[in-house]
């Protein structure tokens, strides 16, 4: 479901208006679909910080003032080290603060869940499914990379851009530089672009060959289900048929 979200302020606090362009999961008729499209979701209560994060927030500003050049990742390490030395009494106080805030959060969350209408619940469920699908796709992609899946090659334009990167003027912004590179590419003749297209074609052919071999190895090692979930088998089959068609046409 494609969804756009706008944050608005109301007299009772911020609300989310979820405006849906397509409600693929809703099958309860046009009336419900119309109601869902106009649904307003109340602001969901935020989980309170745990004891460590309460401590982190309490001293972060002080650390940044005393060490203005410190990188954030280094700041996190330093505060984490400090946390191990914090007096047990202070830790217990912070834990008590967390528990008190969590009890209030639980009450607000129950009230929030009980206040939701049928249309609001449909939107929330649909959004959770969307996030779950995205998460599963990312996990599959990560797993494929861990198994040695070849990386897609650069296009002709990006090969041209990478060749120009060494000569980048440090006085101009990245955005301006990309704009200049794009204009330069668009103004180049086909003949000037040929060498980049040739290189891109060679890299693509190498990638296709490596990918085919890798897929064959994955099938032998019992990873067909992982390949199917990422549509790699269908993709290779389509490429193979397309290449056969091109070769027959040339003959």
UniProtKB/TrEMBL annotation:
Keywords for the protein's UniProt record, in alphabetical order: DNA-binding, Nucleus
One GO BP annotation of this record: regulation of transcription by RNA polymerase II
Gene Ontology cellular component list: nucleus
Nucleus recorded as keyword: yes
DNA-binding region: 45-113, 150-215
Single GO molecular function: DNA binding
Record Gene3D superfamilies: High mobility group box domain
Residue ranges annotated for the HMG box domain, each copy included: 45-113, 150-215
Keyword Nucleus: yes
Domain of life: Eukaryota
InterPro entries attached to this UniProt entry: HMG_box_dom (IPR009071), HMG_box_dom_sf (IPR036910), HMGB (IPR050342)
UniProt-listed PANTHER family: HIGH MOBILITY GROUP PROTEIN DSP1 (PTHR48112), MITOCHONDRIAL TRANSCRIPTION FACTOR A, ISOFORM B (PTHR48112:SF22)
Record's protein name: Transcription factor A, mitochondrial
Organism annotation: Dinoponera quadriceps (South American ant)
């Amino acid at each position: 479901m494609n969804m756009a979200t706008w944050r608005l302020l109301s007299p009772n606090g911020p609300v989310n208006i979820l405006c849906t362009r397509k409600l693929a999961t809703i099958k309860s008729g046009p009336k419900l679909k119309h109601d869902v499209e106009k649904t307003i979701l109340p602001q969901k209560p935020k989980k309170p910080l745990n004891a460590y994060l309460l401590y982190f927030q309490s001293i972060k500003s002080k650390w940044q003032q005393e060490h203005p050049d410190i990188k954030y990742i280094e700041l996190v390490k330093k505060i984490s080290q400090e946390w191990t030395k914090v007096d047990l009494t202070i830790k217990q106080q912070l834990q008590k603060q967390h528990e008190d805030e969590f009890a209030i959060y639980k009450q607000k969350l129950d009230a929030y869940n009980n206040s939701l209408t049928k249309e609001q619940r449909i939107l929330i469920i649909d959004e959770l499914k969307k996030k779950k699908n995205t998460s599963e796709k990312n996990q599959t992609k990560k797993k494929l990379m861990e198994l040695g899946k070849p990386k897609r090659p650069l296009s002709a334009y990006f090969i041209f851009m990478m060749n120009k990167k060494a000569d980048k003027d440090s006085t101009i912004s990245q955005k301006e530089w990309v704009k200049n590179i794009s204009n330069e590419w668009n103004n180049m003749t086909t003949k000037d672009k040929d060498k980049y297209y040739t290189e891109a074609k060679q890299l693509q052919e190498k990638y296709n060959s490596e990918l085919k071999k890798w897929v064959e190895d994955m099938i032998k090692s019992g990873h067909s289900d992982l390949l199917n979930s990422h549509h790699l088998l269908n993709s290779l089959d389509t490429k193979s048929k397309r290449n056969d068609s091109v070769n027959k046409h040339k003959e």
